[in-house]
Every structure is written in structure tokens, then in C-alpha cells.
């Protein structure tokens, strides 16, 4: 299937900040959204630059309550992916597409073992989503909502989201695109979570210097992994983060504030592991990793 020209059934596994933001756009466009999760949910609410709107959703409390669907959006934290195995097996029993709306650089490796014949579509999420209550999200938009690969599997997903009013970019060199997104996360997420402050903390000169050191190390690691990054990516990423809408937060800061597990292994932990593998110095990232691990103990 290359285009989506009718109402589709879309299962969303992980109705947190990102899952609710996408579910709201899909529901607004007339698609049938099935919320897959532990907590009953009948309606979701989104607040963005257009105001606050609410949409009804279906709810499945366990995989047996859900049928195979053409599209799944997986929007849990990276570390919760293995726990969604039964959902994914059931939802993809007839194939279809699984859009992995998570951070990190190894979406396919993470999810392909769980989805049989379904096509895995890695998705880089650029909108800034803040959970305000169960089923409610506040979205601050950037210049794009989503970045997908430029391949056949991603085409149907790109169409689904574009026809739902989201801004989608596709990239032939998805590895580089994924590393560019990873750069935003290895700088913003740990520093906001550790300081307890929103992304505006990155405009403080001493904090900006730390972020730049973290970013330069991550650029070197990304290049060793085959991403087409240059030193300018470090300064560009910092400038992009400093220019985010006032009040922008991060997923890791929200987790710290809510007392949830922090998603640092797939971000800063990945930089530390790959840095070791490639013989790149990653001291700044390793220092953040030690602190994240300490506050998680
Ligand atoms: N927030 C943001 O602005 C952005 C986030 N991202 C990335 O998107 C991904 C999702 O982040 P975000 O939306 O912030 O995370 P949230 O923590 O807000 O949402 C994750 C959701 O997954 C649910 N969940 C966890 N385990 C399971 C399970 N086994 N079965 C079903 N549901 C489950 C959680 O349920 P419960 O509520 O019960 O815990 C929660 O509702 C992450 O990889 C993040 O890094 C990327 C860009 C921006
Ligand atoms: C870009 C950023 C830092 C903010 O949306 C993000 O991806 C996250 O919060 O995980």
C-alpha cells in the first residue's frame, strides 16, 4: 500500500506525551485510534497553538482485546519496548506497518524481532510533547513534526501522518538523520533532567559550554558509525535547542519530575558504549551518564 486515502485503524502502544500527540492528529483526521495500554482511556485531549481539543478513542486493555491492524504507532520509552512484545505480535499478525516513534538510533534493531512480517518504520519525533494529565498533552511544534526514511515501507506511514496534518520530512540517508536527532537528545535530555530545568537552561553560557562538549563527542561517535556529521552539527544542534519555543521541556525531565525511570541507556549510554567501541573520547557524556545513573539508583 503506498497511499492512505481512507479512514484507517491505528493502534497506539504507549499513550504518553508523543503517543497522545499523534493519536490526536490521527483522530482529528478521521482515523480510528485504538489506545493500547494498562489504563482505560476513552478520550484524549491536545493543547497546541490552535487551542485545546478532545477526541474519542477506542481502548484495548490487553492484546487479546485488540485485532490485527494496518498501522501501529509504538511510542513507549526505549526501555519499555520488550514489554510491548505481546501487543506487537497481536497487532501485526496480518503484517502492516509499525511506526517506531522513539528516540535513539537503532529503531529497526529494537523492534524488528517483535513484529514478524510487519514493516518497521523508524520515526524521528521533532514535536515537543508534554504530558499534562493521563490522556492529555501539550504540544509545542518545531519546523517539522516527524522525519522518516525515504523508502517504500515509510511511504504509507508518511502519507498517513501528512494527511493528518503533520509535517513530515523524509531522508534517504536516514542514519545521518537519526544521528542528528540523537544529538538533540544527548545534550538536552540529561542536562534538563539533572538540573531540573527546561531547555532554556541551555542558554546559560557555562551550561552551553558543557552541552557543546557533549555534542562534539557525540558527533565524533556518530561519524565513526557512518553518519555524515561535521563539527558544525554540534553548534547547529545547540542553536536549535536554544531556539525552541519558550517553556519547551524534554521527555527525560518529565520522567524525573514524575519519578519515572529515566531513558538514558539508549541515549547517553549508547554514546558511551559506541565511544568505547570506536576508541573515541566521551568523557563529558560519561560524566552525565554517571550522574544519571546515580539519581536513578
Ligand atoms: N516527549 C517528547 O517531546 C518527545 C519524546 N520522544 C521520544 O518518544 C518516546 C516516547 O516518549 P514520551 O511520549 O515522552 O514518553 P511517555 O513516558 O510520556 O509515554 C510512554 C507511554 O508508554 C506507556 N507504556 C510503557 N510501557 C508500556 C507497555 N508495556 N504497554 C503499553 N504502554 C506502555 C506508558 O504508560 P504509563 O503511563 O502507564 O507509564 C506511557 O503512557 C521516547 O523514546 C522519547 O524519548 C521524542 C521526541 C520528543
Ligand atoms: C527534542 C527533545 C529534546 C524535545 O522534544 C526530545 O526529543 C525529547 O524531549 O526527548
TrEMBL record:
Any GO MF annotation of the entry: 2-dehydropantoate 2-reductase activity
Record's keyword annotation contains NADP: yes
Domain Ketopantoate reductase N-terminal: 10-143
Keywords: NADP, Oxidoreductase, Pantothenate biosynthesis
Family to which this protein belongs: Belongs to the ketopantoate reductase family.
NCBIfam families in the cross-refs: apbA_panE, PRK06522.2-2
Name of the featured protein: 2-dehydropantoate 2-reductase
Species per Swiss-Prot/TrEMBL record: Prauserella oleivorans
Amino acid at each position: 500500500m503506498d497511499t492512505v486515502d481512507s479512514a484507517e485503524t491505528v493502534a497506539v502502544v504507549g499513550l504518553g506525551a508523543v503517543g497522545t500527540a499523534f493519536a490526536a492528529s490521527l483522530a482529528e483526521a478521521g482515523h480510528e485510534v485504538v489506545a493500547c495500554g494498562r489504563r482505560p482511556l476513552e478520550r484524549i485531549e491536545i493543547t497546541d497553538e490552535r487551542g485545546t481539543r478532545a477526541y474519542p478513542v477506542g481502548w484495548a486493555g490487553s492484546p487479546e482485546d485488540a485485532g490485527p491492524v494496518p498501522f501501529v504507532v509504538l511510542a513507549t520509552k526505549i526501555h519499555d519496548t520488550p514489554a510491548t512484545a505481546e501487543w506487537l505480535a497481536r497487532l501485526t499478525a496480518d503484517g502492516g506497518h509499525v511506526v517506531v516513534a522513539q528516540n535513539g538510533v537503532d529503531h529497526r534493531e529494537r523492534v524488528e524481532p517483535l513484529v514478524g512480517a510487519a514493516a518497521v518504520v523508524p520515526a524521528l519525533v521533532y514535536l515537543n510533547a508534554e504530558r499534562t494529565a493521563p490522556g492529555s498533552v501539550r504540544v509545542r511544534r518545531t519546523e517539522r513534526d516527524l522525519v522518516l526514511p525515504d523508502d517504500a515501507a515509510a511511504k504509507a506511514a508518511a502519507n498517513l501522518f501528512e494527511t493528518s496534518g503533520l509535517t513530515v520530512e523524509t531522508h534517504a540517508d536516514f542514519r545521518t538523520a537519526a544521528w542528528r536527532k540523537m544529538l538533540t537528545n544527548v545534550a538536552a535530555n540529561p542536562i534538563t533532567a539533572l538540573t531540573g530545568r527546561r531547555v532554556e537552561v541551555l542558554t546559560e553560557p557555562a551550561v552551553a559550554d558543557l552541552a557543546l562538549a557533549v555534542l562534539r563527542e557525540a558527533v565524533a561517535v556518530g561519524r565513526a558509525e557512518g553518519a555524515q556529521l561535521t563539527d558544525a552539527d554540534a553548534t547547529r544542534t545547540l542553536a536549535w535547542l536554544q531556539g525552541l519555543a519558550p517553556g519547551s521541556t524534554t521527555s527525560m525531565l518529565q520522567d524525573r519530575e514524575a519519578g519515572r525511570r529515566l531513558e538514558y541507556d539508549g541515549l547517553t549510554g549508547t554514546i558511551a558504549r559506541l565511544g568505547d567501541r570506536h576508541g573515541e573520547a566521551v568523557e563529558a557524556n560519561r560524566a552525565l551518564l554517571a550522574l544519571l545513573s546515580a539519581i536513578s539508583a
